[in-house]
Every structure is written in C-alpha cells, then in structure tokens.
Amino acid sequence: MSMRTHKPLKKSIERFLYGALAASTLGISLAVAQAPLAPVVSDKPQVTPPKNDAALKALTPVPAKLLLNPPDNDWLMWRRTYDTWGYSPLKQINTDNVKNLTVAWSWAMTSGATETTPLVHDGVLFLYNWLDKVQALDATNGDLLWEYKRDIPAEIPRQNGNFAAKRNIAMVDDKLIVATSDVHIIALDMKTGKVVWDHQTEDYKKGWRYSGGPLVAKDVIVQGMTGCGNAMPGGCFITGHDINDGKELWRFHTIAQPGEPGGDSWNGLPLEKRFGASTWNSGSYDPDTDTVFLGVGQPYPHIAEIGGLLPKKEGANNDALYTGATLALDPHTGKLKWFYQHLPNDTWDLDYAYERVLIDLPVDGKTRKALVTVGKLGIIEVLDRTNGQWLWSKQTVYQNVIKAIDPKTGAKTINEEAVPHIGKTTTNCPADPGSRGWPATAYSPRTHMLYLPLNEYCSDTTPIPIEEGKTYTGGSRAIFARGQIPGSDGKIGRVDGVDLFAQKAAWSDRTRAAQTGAAIATGGGLVFAGALDRYFRAYDDKTGKVLWQMRTSNIVNSYPITYSVKGKQYVAVAVGNGSSHARSLATLTPEIAIPESGSALFVFALPDNK
Fold first, then answer.
1. Residues 381, 359 contacting (CB under 8 angstroms)
2. What is the 3-state secondary structure (H, E, C) of 69-131?
3. HEC profile for 232-273?
4. pTM surpassing 0.85?
5. Could you say which of 182, 499, 523, 559 would form a disulfide bridge with 91 (CB–CB 3.0 to 4.6 Å)?
6. How many CB atoms lie within 10 A of CB 48?
7. How far apart are CA 393 and CA 382, in angstroms?
C-alpha cells in the first residue's frame, strides 16, 4: 500500500525541529553549549519544614510486605501493584455516576515535562515535579504538608526538558525513593521530606540520566539507567540498591559485553562503538518467582547502517543484544534468568521499553503465567513469564515494518522495503515515537481486557550520515517527516479495549488528537485516559463509550491514579507540556493549540450529595 506524498523536505525539517526535544525520539542530535559546572549536590537541599498536621501524624510506614498486597485505598507504586495492571478495585465512582465527576482541588506544579505518577498513602499524596521537586500534599484538599527541592546544576534544565522529568517515585518503610536529575538515588523521610541517604550512581556530566523511576522488590531498589544515546560507549545498565542506605549491590549491563553470552551479537563492533539499550521505564515484579521484569530500548544511532549494525558481516550476528528485549532478573543479584528479544537490530527507533504486565491467561486450554507487553509497533506480545517462551501476538494499529510473526517462536520477518538506508528516504509505519509510547496500558480483571492508548501515523525517514572524519556524538542521525497512515480519515489517537482471554479487540475509540496519557481501570467499570487536546476522559470498560470528559489546562501527558480517603474516592492526573513524546505527536495536528507552559495536578471527586 503506497503512502500519499508528504510535504516538501523544508517543511519536514521545520516539523522535526519543532518536535525536537530529546534524542530518544528525535532524528538529529542537537549540540548544547555547556555552562560552567555547578556543584553536583547542594549540602543543604531546600526543605520546607512540615506542618504539624494531622495528616502527617497519621502517616504509617510501608513495609515491603505491604507492597505485595496494597490497600485498596492507596496507590503505593507506579502502576499500583507489582503486576503493573494500572487497576484499582475502588468503585464508588462508577458508570452510573461518573457523569457527576467534578474538580475537588488542584495544585500548580513546576512547569516542564510532566510525566509523573502521584503516590498516595494514608491520606497523603506525594508528588514529583519536573526538576526534582517533591511535595507531600493533603490528599483531600491539596494543602502543602512539606516540600523538598533539590539543588540542580544549572546546565541540566538547559540541556533538555526530559533530563529533569521522572515517571515515578517509590516508597518503602518510612522513605520515598527518588531517582534524581543529577543521577543520584535518594531516600526522603515521608513525614518531613528530609534526606535520609543519598547515593550517586554515575556522572550526569557524561550524559547519563534517569527517566523511569525505582522499583522496590523486597529489600532491593531496582533502577534502570537512560541517556545511553548520548554517545556513551558500552551502553546502559540496571542497578540494584540496598533499601537501607542506597548502596549499590549489583550492576547489569543492558548491552551484552564481549566474552559474555550475547556479547558477539553486535556485528563485530567493539564495546566502545556499541550505544543505546536504555531502560526508559520502571519494571514489574513477580514475588512468586522473585523475578523483576524490565524492557530495554533500542540501539543508537537508530539507523543501523550508520551505527555499524548493517550490512551484516560475513559470519557475524547483528541482533544487538539486549536491545528490544524483555529481561527477567534476580533482584538480589542482578543475575539474568532469561531474556526474549522482540525486535533484533532495531533500525527504526521502535523499541520495547515499556511496562511488562503480569497476568495468568488461558492459552490452548491451559492457564499460563503470562507476561504481556506492547512495543512501539503496537503489537500485543505474550510470553510465559516463568521461562520466556513465546505464546501469542496480536496486531492493533497499521504497521508496515513486520511482514509476519512465527506463531511458535515469535520470530519476526522484516519488510525490507521499510528498512532505512543512507541516501534514501523510506516510509515506515509507525513513525519513531511509536504507535504507543511510554504512557502505559491498563488491565482489568473484571473484563479481562487490556486498555491501550495508541496513535496511528507514519514517517518518511531520511538518514543523516556522520561526516567523514567526525565521530558519533549521539542522537538518531535521521530526519523523520511524520504524516498520516494510508487512507487515514485524519484521526490520530485511539484508546482500544482488547480481550486477552479471547485474543480479540472489543472496542476502539478514535480521536483527532493523539493519545498522550496513560490508562487506568477501576472496579467501578471505568477506564480513564487523556489526550493531546487536553481532554481527560472516562470510558465504559466494556463498550468504550465516553461517559465523562473534562478539558484540563494542559496536555494530559502522565499517569493518572485513583485513591480513597475516609470513604471518598478521588481520581488524580497531572497535566503539562514539554515531553518529547507529546511534542513529536503535536506536529501531526498543528491546528490543536497547546500551552507552552503551565503544569498542574487535577484531582476529581463526586459532589458530596451524589
């Protein structure tokens, strides 16, 4: 199927530059002037003293065992539970009364890329703001209880908005665990905001950074590193830390090292010329097998011919492990239990770095302990989480990269016409930010459905070779001219409900605006998700009918949550422009105006008389 003609290259470059914010989703890396370096960490981070508030007095510790079965009223981790369902059993707000939902309170946040997940425990809401400001708020009315503000080196926010955005924080015992923009992992006292311990993992001046946040698995904090597209030789890694003092316990390299299993999969490239393999998001955890699951990003530069992964050398392997893979790790040692590579040698920036959803599913008449994930291609892929065995897959949106998938092994046959080559412009669908991005899916045990925020679009991809005599310094090394899929009606966004038991789509709601927020599902029969046009919506989980919507003050570009305090249920979502994902998608709908600044937390509830 042929693509219709896109705008001239000049317009493509304009669109590219408008959307350019982070090398993870961009074509050409942008050089940034470096200011004189400020101290890495202030001796005295700014902490607003806590009020003598009843909410703080009532705050109890969160022992690791509580994370195994969180109270229904709380939201204690990134996707509420270790299986990353993004599901809450709360049902006070339901399909009958959600039409009455209104703003209970709101809170202005630091302007910047706002990709955050609030946490709630014992009536206190903990909120990460762009540029490492953490606040404790009364979850019933938004009163500030305490505030921690890290002293961040001045060049970090100038480098790139995403350098200072984190998608989640964690909690355990009496501490909040935060991955910082200067590449430390710190623990804050939940009642005061004071620093309990501070561990530096790497040197931020070399380009390392965090985007996803920590996962607590028993007595270990597991944290993935990003920034590996900034020409960091040898790629990224995942670390394990002691919950008591932050001490590093182990380090797993997400680019296979020479002389180790998978180390010969980089087309003969030496370690110093292997780049990428970021871990962009937090993981999931199976306490029954004591296994942590994480997804790994793509190689850099994205264009395989520029990075040396194509053409394939005689007798060599160019799969580029462990990019595009699911990793199953022992959280105590970092030892690899198994892996499955979903897309070997990804040359499109179509990685598989998102959440791994743990569900027991019927497969061929037997219940399997499954792991479900969806990469940028929008293909639902299901593995056995005990051993990595392939189970099944299902395509959602239009794509032209994969011609076929082996039903027994999951091995993918590539459409060679969609492979980018130097000196040629190639059409590939979806485009580089993916038909789905970091905004997470949700699963409901009520319906057995996976709810997916999706987007439909393509890209004319033009590689930009490295000039002779120069070395790779980071970025994708391509221009992406993004446009609509063949035969498009102009609607870019979708929220789909897919029955994982029946392996079939149940419903799809399509919108002109791209879907930019994560989904959550509730016991009240609702799915909440948000979009680029600032609408936050509630869907009927069985039919996909929009039952309620409100236009917020900015892009819904984060992870919503729901919680309950003193018998009253609330739904909270942060809004704010600035992420590279949202800015890239915005080029597809230039008529939709987006505020340049202004981030906020909106908290909704039913009126007291409803």
1. no
2. CCCCCCECCCCCCCCCCCEECCCCCCCCCHHHCEEEEEEEECCCCCCCCCEEECCEEEEEECC
3. CCCCCEEEEEECCCCCEEEEEECCCCCCCCCCCCCCCCCHHH
4. yes
5. 523
6. 15
7. 6
* Sheet bearing 144-149, strands edge to edge: 46-48, 144-149, 133-138, 124-129, 119-121
Domain edges within the chain: 9-29+54-605
Contact 595, 586 (CB under 8 A): no
CA nearest neighbour of 450 among 79, 30, 12:
79
Extract the tokens encoding 121.
């425990």
User: Average pLDDT for residues 220-229, to the nearest whole number?
Assistant: 93
- Exposure string of 336-368, with b = 16+ CB inside 10 Å and e = fewer, is bbbbbbbbbbbbbbbbbbbbbbbbebeeeeeeb
Rg of the chain (C-alpha set): 22
Angstrom CA distances, 500 to 372, 436, 452, stand at: 9, 18, 12
Report residue 78 CA to chain centroid gap.
Answer: 10
Can you give the length of the chain in residues?
610
Strands 220-224 and 215-217: antiparallel
Predicted confidence (pLDDT) per residue in 147-200, tens digit: 999 999 888 877 655 678 999 999 999 999 999 999 999 999 999 999 999 999
Burial of 406 (0-12, 13-18, 19+ CB in 10 A): exposed
What is the rounded distance in angstroms from the CA atom of residue 48 to the CA atom of residue 148? 6
Least-confidence region, from 150-154, 243-247, 333-337, 392-396: 150-154
Give how far Cα 396 sits from Cα of 159, 207, 230, Å: 36, 35, 32
Share of the chain above pLDDT 70, in %: 92
H helix count then E strand count, the chain: 5, 41
Please identify which residue in the block is written with the tokens 């981070």: 45
The tens digit of pLDDT for each residue in 248-275 reads: 999 999 999 999 999 999 999 999 999 9
Q: What top-level class would CATH report for the domain 9-29+54-605?
A: mainly beta
Average pLDDT over residues 283-299: 97
User: Side-chain half-sphere of 370: how many Cα atoms within 13 Å?
Assistant: 22
Read off the pLDDT of residues 507-548 as tens digits, 9 standing for 90 and up: 999 999 999 999 999 999 999 999 999 999 999 999 999 999
- Among the listed residues 444, 604, 431, 610, the one whose alpha carbon sits nearest the alpha carbon of residue 530: 604
Give the number of other Cβ atoms within 10 Å of residue 562's Cβ: 27
> Is the distance from CB of 578 to CB of 594 less than 8 angstroms?
no
How far apart are alpha carbons 180 and 211 in whole angstroms? 9
User: What CA–CA distances, in Å, run from 314 to 219, 268, 318, 368, 396?
Assistant: 46, 10, 11, 40, 36
| Widest distance between CA atoms in the chain | 73
Q: Answer yes or no: are the C-beta atoms of 540 and 109 closer than 8 Å.
A: no
Cα angle, residue 397 at apex, residues 28 and 401 outer, rounded to 5°: 55
Neighbours of 328 (CB within 10 A): 25
Mean pLDDT (the chain, rounded): 91
- Give 130's pLDDT tier (boundaries 50, 70, 90): very high
Q: Provide the β-strand partners of residue 98.
A: none
CA dist 46 and 420 (Å) reads 48
Q: Please say whether the beta carbons of 537 and 546 come within 8 A.
A: yes
Answer whether residue 44 shows pLDDT above 80.
Answer: no
Report yes or no: 169 and 574 within 8 Å, Cβ to Cβ.
Answer: no
